[in-house]
Write a structure and sequence with these properties.
Pfam families: TrkA_C, TrkA_N. By secondary structure, the chain is of the alpha/beta class. The chain folds into two domains: 5-119, Rossmann fold, CATH 3.40.50; 130-225, Regulator of K+ conductance, C-terminal domain (Alpha-Beta Plaits, 2-Layer Sandwich). The protein has eleven helices and eleven strands. It has helices at 13-24, 36-40, 57-61, 78-91, 104-112, 121-134, 165-168, 170-174, 212-219, 222-235, 240-259, and strands spanning 5-9, 28-33, 48-51, 70-73, 96-100, 117-119, 142-143, 148-154, 176-183, 186-188, 202-208. Strands 3-2-1-4-5-6 form a six-stranded parallel beta sheet, with helices on both faces. The radius of gyration is 25 Å and the shape is elongated. The model is unreliable at 223-243 (pLDDT under 50).
Length: 260
C-alpha cells in the first residue's frame, strides 16, 4: 500500500464526488460497495473497485483496509454505516476514518462508537448558507471548528490598506487572523506582521462566527456591496408570469380602492 491510498466505502453520489476529488489530486482510490451494478460503473481511474458487504468484518479485513491511509465511510444506509464503522473500530484500523452521517442522531452514534471525524453534509451546507444570508455574502463560508470559520475575501476597503498588519490590530479589533494573501498573482504565506494589504488583494481569513460580520466589513466596503446588491435586484428582469400576477394584483387593489 502507498501512503496516498484512500478507501471509499459506499459509492453513491457522495462517495463518487469524494472519489473524483481524490483522483484529481493523483491519489490511489479503492472503492467498496455491496451493489455489483454500482461497482461495475466505477471508472477506470480508480485503483480498485470491489463488491463486498462492509458489514461483514471478515470480508472487510480481506480488502487490505487495515493499511489504508484514510477511509471515507459514505454509506447512505444508517444501519449499514454504523455496523461498518463498528467493524473498522474493532479491526483497529490505524488510518484516519471520516464518516458521513445522515443526521445528528446518526452522528452521535458514530461518535459514541469511536469515529472522531463525522460530517453531516446537509447540516453543514445549511449552516454556511445561513451565514451567507445573514451577512449578504457571496463567497462560501467554511467551518474550522464549532465556533470558527474561514472565508476568502477581496480587499475593497481602503482603510485597511497601505499599512502594516501589526498596526491594523486585526485580532484585537475583530478576533480574526489572516491565513493567506494573494497579491498581483503572488502567494504570500506565511503572512508576516509587516505585510501590507492593497485593494484587490485576495485574503483568506479565520474568524469567529460571532465576529464574522465585523471581519467582512473590515476588509470590504460593505456599503458599496449593499448598494450593488440593491441595484442588481432592481435590474433583475421579472419573468412574464410574475409580471402578469403583479398586474392582476394591482388591478384588484385599484378596484377595491374605487369601491371603498
Amino acid at each position: 500500500m502507498n501512503k496516498n491510498d484512500y478507501f471509499i466505502l459506499g459509492y453513491g453520489k457522495f462517495g463518487r464526488r469524494v472519489t473524483q476529488t481524490l483522483i484529481e489530486k493523483n491519489n490511489n482510490v479503492i472503492v467498496l460497495d455491496n451493489n455489483k451494478e454500482v461497482i461495475d460503473k466505477a471508472p477506470d481511474t480508480v485503483s480498485c473497485a470491489m463488491c463486498i458487504d462492509t458489514t461483514d468484518i471478515n470480508a472487510l479485513k480481506e480488502t487490505g483496509i487495515l493499511n489504508a491511509t484514510c477511509i471515507i465511510v459514505a454509506i447512505s444506509d444508517v444501519q449499514d454505516s454504523i455496523l461498518t464503522c463498528a467493524n473498522l473500530v474493532e479491526l483497529g484500523v490505524k488510518g484516519n476514518i471520516i464518516a458521513r452521517a445522515q443526521n445528528t442522531m446518526h452522528k452521535r452514534v458514530l461518535k459514541t462508537i469511536g469515529i472522531e471525524h463525522v460530517a453531516v453534509p446537509e447540516e453543514e451546507v445549511a449552516h454556511r448558507v445561513g451565514l451567507q444570508a445573514m451577512y449578504h455574502f457571496d463567497e462560501s463560508v467554511h467551518s474550522l471548528t464549532a465556533d470558527y470559520v474561514w472565508v476568502s475575501l477581496v480587499v475593497s476597503n481602503r482603510n485597511c490598506t497601505n499599512q502594516p498588519l501589526k498596526d491594523l490590530n486585526i485580532r484585537g479589533k475583530i478576533n480574526a487572523s489572516i491565513l493567506f494573501i494573494k497579491h498581483n498573482g503572488e502567494n504570500i504565506f506565511p503572512v508576516k506582521s509587516d505585510t501590507t494589504l492593497s485593494l484587490g488583494d485576495l485574503v483568506v481569513i479565520m474568524a469567529s462566527e460571532k465576529t464574522l460580520g465585523l471581519a467582512i466589513d473590515f476588509f470590504t466596503d460593505s456599503m458599496f456591496r449593499s448598494v450593488n446588491k440593491e441595484q442588481e435586484h432592481e435590474n433583475t428582469p421579472l419573468v412574464p408570469q410574475t409580471k402578469r400576477r403583479l398586474r392582476k394584483i394591482q388591478i384588484k387593489l385599484k378596484k377595491k380602492t374605487k369601491n371603498g
